[in-house]
Amino acid sequence: MKNIRELIKEKRVYFDGGTGTVLQKKGLQPGEAPETWNITQPHKIVTLHKSYLKAGANILKTNTFGVNRTKFLNYAELIRKGIECAKKAVEEVGESEKYIAFDMGPTGKLLEPLGDLAFEEAVSIFADNVKAAAECGADLILIETMNDSYETKAAVLAAKENCDLPIFVTNVYDGTGKLMTGANPAAMIAMLEGLGVDALGMNCSLGPDKMLEIIDEFAKYSSVPIIVNPNAGLPEVVDGETVFNIGAEEFSDYMVQLAEHGASILGGCCGTTPEFIKKTIEKTKSMPYECPTYKDITMVSSYTHSVIVDKNPILIGERINPTGKPKLKEALRTGDLNYVLNEAVRQADKNVHILDVNVGLPEIDETEMMKKCISGIQAVTDLPLQIDSTKFETLEQAMRIYNGKPLVNSVNGTEESLKNVLPIVQKYGGGLIALTIDEKGIPDNAPDRAKIAEKIIARAAEYGISKREIIVDPLALTISSNPESAVVTLESIRLIRALGVKTSLGISNISFGLPQRNLVTSTFYANALQSGLNCAIMNPFAEEMMNVYYAYRALNCLDTGCVDYINYASAIQGVAKTDVKSEETLHVCIVKGLKEGAVTQTKKLLESISPLDVINKHIVPALNEIGTAFEQKKAYLPQLLMSAETASLSFEEVKKKIPKDQTDTSKAIVLATVKGDIHDIGKNIVKVLMESYGFTVYDLGRDVPPEKILECALEHNCKLVGLSALMTTTVPSMAETIKLLNKTDKSIVTMVGGAVLNQEYADMIGADFYGADAMDSVRFAEKFYAG
Amino acid sequence: MFVQKGDIKIITAKAEEIRINQNELALRLKTGREYESELLEKCRKRFNETVSYRCACIRIPVDLSEENVCKFDFAQVHSKNLYRNLQGCKEVFVLAVTTGIAVDRLLARLNITSQAEHFVTDGLSSAAIESFCDYVSDILSENLKCASRFSAGYGDFSIEFQKPLLERLSAAETLGITLNSAYLMTPVKSITAIMGIKL
Predict the structure, then answer these.
(1) CA distances from residue A695 to A668, A670, A781, B32, B147 in whole angstroms, order as listed
(2) Number of domains in chain B
(3) Smallest CA–CA distance from A24 into chain B, residue
(4) How distant is the Cα of B105 from the closest Cα of chain A, in angstroms?
(5) Residues of chain B whose pLDDT is less than 70?
(6) pLDDT recorded at residue A688
(7) Residue A579: pLDDT above 60?
């Protein structure tokens, strides 16, 4: 029998239709798992399969959709029996070109960081299924009805790592053309083709009419055959019976249209029966078949969307890279993920397209930190990421857990780099930044840099990595030491573009060592764009760079009606306007929560009075005013929080003027939400307020075990500990924490708060203070340190 | 594949169709009902751009023949409180509603950037999902007399029933709602409920 990988390139093949909905008609009860029939009533399953084969289907989906080790202890047996049923049906029908797809559905759990199923645990669950299926002789793996890109990736990796069978994947799109967790077809195609699946598409949820609205997206981006397995429309209850609103005739008419729009492999899902498949085959079998062709589109993706590298310049935010950034270095050393995440969100707000993530510091475990950052950043922004490391292990681990298709920074022309980086890009998929450097260093002329690019392209092709995935960075060196650097780099861009690949530059290097660097960098950027540069790794907070970006797009017909340019320009004017507000005094700015104004006024004050006076005569009195208003119920919590955040920004400015050795860290507090409790909103409010009053806060986060809290208090010799709990079930773990703290160091004072607590509770568990609200806590802490 | 959704009805609403209940909001934000601010407006606008209201529900019989036991087709619930709540009912609506996963992502992001915006948006989302639940209840109970909504976790109606209830609604597929090991739902702003139909 022909390998199905080849067959789907040559002719249209057909899946079977619904399983569960048909079994319901045969007596399957609500709540009864259809897969159990593989053991209890196999003849019915065989009969169902046979009816689809007789209708003309080429591929049977085994009755194993919901099987995995978390739901069934006997999962392996259910899989074996399920495949046996399909085999028996194929044997009895006795026709050729019939294949058995091991059907694998979602786990029903959401993966971390939003859910609680760890990525590797998901891979392992799917891996057990795949191993069992491969042993029993399935012809291919069908991963279907997936509504989350991350879980889809886990399943595909499990399949790749545990068998050599072809992998087909179909996802569930809703009426807006997205997965439940946000991905659109382009994002899924980018990721799945990167992972090397053999066919991809959609199933379930929608009828063929709605899938017709999405099919063009697939046809536009997919280079592999497209699977379409729709429902028979929408379910309705008529006289107590569930019926789907599209019949076989209408269904098959739609399938003809879907085929015309590029669907390659046709079949059905819920509500469809052998009749639907039979009619579909009758109407489409004589239609000419064209397998999707290679699309020369350079795409990377996140879990929501793809970024296409084309005529539009791509901005890659460079700020998450410790080189030359002492604050980020410090954050990475202390494991302060919040600082990193904040940098990510701030850059995203500047409308960059991709974020570079580099956490390379010799003194930390780079791989672990990279994984934490990738996962953390993907929880707070949906931008695709560029994984940036010189360590191959770090690149591989990060690519593995990345949700989507990343950009990988980088490979170069050295043998060591080529043989280590190319295999992992082949395995996980990714856009690949290729540096024009080899064992001899960076060539001083453009033709030699282009030669290295050619070599990398050729070597990548040996691994099946096509040209479209390669983005060459011909390297910008500073003109302060290499006067011809800019000229050579620009010429290199032109030569490399002629090779048919895209280009990228770490643009800021060009001005290193010069005064007013942004002037040089932005002018160079404009020149580079004119020479054909696609991506720039750049600082989105440099206004000059953004000016060039928006103006270039407007000038080159890339911004219809100059809409983006006009919005950008008015936003710049808007910033100028907010400065008018800053004529208010710092006091008023803090009370009203005017952030920009407060920063401007703080800077002004610092020119004439000492940092300490700014704190004591301006910030603290303003905070006290809003604090008192809050206590007297004249101001509300949102206002108090705005003021606190504003004061914190002001504090940041003041701190810059205080020499590090004079920073007052005596006012400190350890804060944590206790073990078992994942609610941190109250704790975070207290934190913001404490910080605005100049406290050093050691924030341990949520769900923190007692030992960790004690360890932190001892390490920093901090005698004040604030604990929060929101659920009655976690008050005991608060009591346990207090007991441990008191037992170890009697001088530690505990304050507690949270929705379920009151004074009585607090007394009962031995807390020293109960704070009814955040302001209460601040007042107590102030008193504590005032002695 | 098999999703038991034949009898499951899906109800969606656009952000502008849901009027967020002012009392609920004031309660969450710990403000007076009159509270308005630039901050609130900014958060409300962004929340409305993010939210995707969605409900899955079924109408099924309930058997109350045994005292303090409520028998549904997906589970038998031993609960005095629920039993009392459903007195006089032969059928119930079982429903789950959610604001969608994008709201979780927005909250995670605000938790990093601004506690003020996070606090307000968290309050808005909680008030909004309650308001959407009211909206759905109004649609379902039109021309019917219904008991008040009752959720797993109230009184002696064990939180563990979230699992069979969500499975019955195929909530992972129909709404994207999943449970963690502590029976907490993701998206976090999701509610499940049983609403008795009094005949």
Answers:
(1) 5, 10, 9, 30, 51
(2) 1
(3) B4
(4) 6
(5) 1-6
(6) 84
(7) no
